[in-house]
Amino acid sequence: MLFLRIAALLNNGICGALVVPLLAEQPFYKLKQSAIRYIYRTMSSETGEPSRQARPRGRPRGFDAAAALEAAMKIFWAEGFDGASVDLLARETGMPRATLYQVYADKEGLFLAAVAHYAGTRTARVGAALRQGGNLRDDLAAFFSAVIELATSEPKARGCLISCVLADAAGTNPRFRAELERRFLALENRIRERLEAAGPEAGDIPARAVMIAAIARGLMLRARAGAGRDFLEQAAAEAVRVLAPPRH
Q1: Which residue has the higher pLDDT, 40 or 145?
Q2: Structure pTM?
Q3: Domain residue limits, the chain
Q4: Greater confidence, 232 or 54?
């Protein structure tokens, strides 16, 4: 067999370059793939050239998972779930499609990871505004101020990833609906905790917590639609006046 002749020559120290002419003796298709690999490795070792090895599958060199997730969050925030194509996400995050599917399973998985990232890095600041240690009126004013800041801080991504984008994408998607409900409840529970600390002056705490959260979401939606900061601040000031009227 041709392969055995070639192997014998190589084992006897014959230069691989002299073996190559033997390839012309038989049609190329008769060489098995294993023989080709064997010859290539041997010739590479003789010439001092490193044999080319396949890179292990996985994340590309220099891949920054945190930066990629931040970029994906901003794309979803600006473009919406449907508007953020996989090609756009891969290009803007520097994350190959193969890596996206390997790490997040699919576009939905990446979106939910982006929502979790948004909750941890953005809405957490809004909730923290309710724990300023002042009276209820001041804390509500700080809360709505944080809402407006979040809704208008990104020129290309106004509004809220949860109240606007996730709510829009939920539709008939059970994963998104469950995530939306979970995020809504998280904010309402945070507000309720602050109202409970205020005591009797807070009124019907469960109902008022839902109402305050609904006002915050309304401000987010108006910002998404293009409302200016001054308009939003006026609406927020009126909400604070109604929810926690000043004492005389």
Answers
A1: 145
A2: 0.74
A3: 2-47, 65-243
A4: 232
3-state secondary structure 40-90: HHHHHHHHCCCCCCCCCCCCCCCCCHHHHHHHHHHHHHHHHHHHCCHHHHH
For tokens 């300023």, the residue is 132
Considering only CA atoms, which of 228, 235, 199 is closest in space to residue 214?
235
Long-range CB contacts (within 8 A, 24+) of 99-104: 99/58, 99/59, 99/60, 99/63, 102/57, 102/58, 102/59, 103/59, 103/65
Half-sphere exposure of 219 (CA within 13 A, CB side): 27
Calculate the alpha carbon distances from 237 to 41, 119, 183 in Å. Answer: 75, 25, 25
Residue matched to tokens 């915050």: 216
Burial, 6: exposed, middle or buried (Cβ in 10 Å; 0-12, 13-18, 19+)? buried
CATH number for 65-243 (one of 3.50.50.60, 3.30.559.30, 1.10.357.10, 3.90.400.10): it is 1.10.357.10
Check if the beta carbon of residue 156 is closer than 8 Å to that of residue 78. Answer: yes
In one letter, which amino acid is 225? A
pLDDT in the model for residue 38: 47
Exposed/middle/buried for 43, CB within 10 Å: 0-12, 13-18, 19+? middle
Which residues, 6+ apart, have CB-to-CB distance to 134 below 8 Å? 142
Choose among 74, 53, 72: nearest CA to 63: 72
- Extract the tokens encoding 26: 């038989």
